[in-house]
Amino acid sequence: MTTAAASLTSRNPADPADVLLRMPAPGAFAAADAVERARAAQPGWLAAGAAARSAALGAVADAVDAAADELAALAVREVGKPLTEARAEVARTAAIWRFYAQAPYEPTGAVHEPAAGPGLLLTRRRPHGVAGLITPWNFPFAIPSWKAAPALAAGNTVVLKPAPQATACARRLAEIVRRQLPMEVFTVLPGGATEGNAIADAADVVSFTGSTSVGRAVVRAATARGIPVQAEMGGLNAAIVLPDADIQQAAAHIAVSIAAYAGQKCTATSRVIAVGAALDPLREALSEALRALPVGDPSDATTVCGPLIDEHACDRVRDAWRDLPTLAGGTVPPGPGWYAAPTLVEKVPSEHRLLREEVFGPVAALLPADDLAHAVRIANHVPYGLVTSVHTADLNTALHGLDRLDTGMIRINAPSTGVDFHLPFGGAKASGHGPREQGRAALKFYTSSRTYTLSPAGAT
Fold this sequence. Notes:
Layout: E1 7-12, E2 15-24, H1 28-47, H2 50-66, H3 68-79, H4 83-100, E3 109-112, E4 120-127, E5 130-134, H5 142-153, E6 157-161, H6 167-178, E7 186-188, H7 193-202, E8 205-209, H8 212-225, E9 229-232, E10 237-241, H9 247-259, E11 269-275, H10 279-292, H11 311-321, E12 326-328, E13 343-346, E14 363-369, H12 372-380, E15 384-385, E16 387-391, H13 395-402, E17 409-412, E18 428-429, E19 432-433, H14 439-445, E20 447-454
Helix pairs in contact: 1-7, 2-4, 3-4, 3-6, 4-5, 7-8, 9-10
């Protein structure tokens, strides 16, 4: 990892002159100190019991609901999330806390018969201690929540290091959460790589979402210490469209998956694979659908594609479509923000970065395939394996190809974007490392299993 800057600055991506905050980076010592204070608070949080933890998480959900409009407006301003999506994220955040508010009452183990003689054998899951969470900017409320809520429900304390671009969102979330919890149980530590390194070096369990290069460094650091770690590191997701699909519906789903929130989702579609006779009608329908999507001010409720997060991201996306045949987009909308039009390209060379790297913007390549087997090979022929969408009217065809796709999630006749927080989330290959997150799978990750043998006194 690189060394963090001495200060943090958060700007409005739709208007870079609008600075939300400037603050000094806390540094490694502050990060290590935050972990130690959380560690001291953890036994008391666990001893408070299931009812107290459940009530606290439920109160967080209610507080998020009460502040919904404010939080949505903050996400629009700080990370450029279109207003409709920002409102949906805040609603989802409250639902996540409410879901995990029931988790403290879940069974934490089982009773077994001993192999011989009297007594009991018990298994019981216990919290690790301090959960170090390193989160990205694109879902500034939902991702910290779907990591923190299960960790807290299981009896861990939490130190959260958000992405610098989402510092204001994280600090506001911390204000809401901390009002419902004892001191030092939930701490937000702003910063960059220095602070992230320090948390990975001190926490008892680490969960990361972000870029592949940083995620691998976090995994190495945690693994060297022998602590549990999970890392979600993006995708290069494909949409497979078969000739029997409803082409208009598929085009509508894929267009949104490419362009919504300027393609700044790990589940966004970046490769569109048209099978056989689907190619020509899909080319026309998808190009038209992308051109029709509203691009512009994220505070406008009709906007689908808002700004990219910063100038570097904008340059990266514009670079990706340069010199390629463009079917839609390939332009820079006017205005002061960091914008790029939703773009579809074709005839992309196999070695091109669009087919090998996650560009993280509203641009996708249209690729032809001879048949389903060929489409599956194309979909699998990348380092990532997060999500694939398959569009077809024939369930038998869909089922035939499902098990051959090397992705953690498969969506039939649906956009590649959008996940259910009560089910496991994660990918294969370079998309993920370690256990899945979200749902009940998260409760297992934030706990370890212990086996107890109870024998009567005096037994032989």
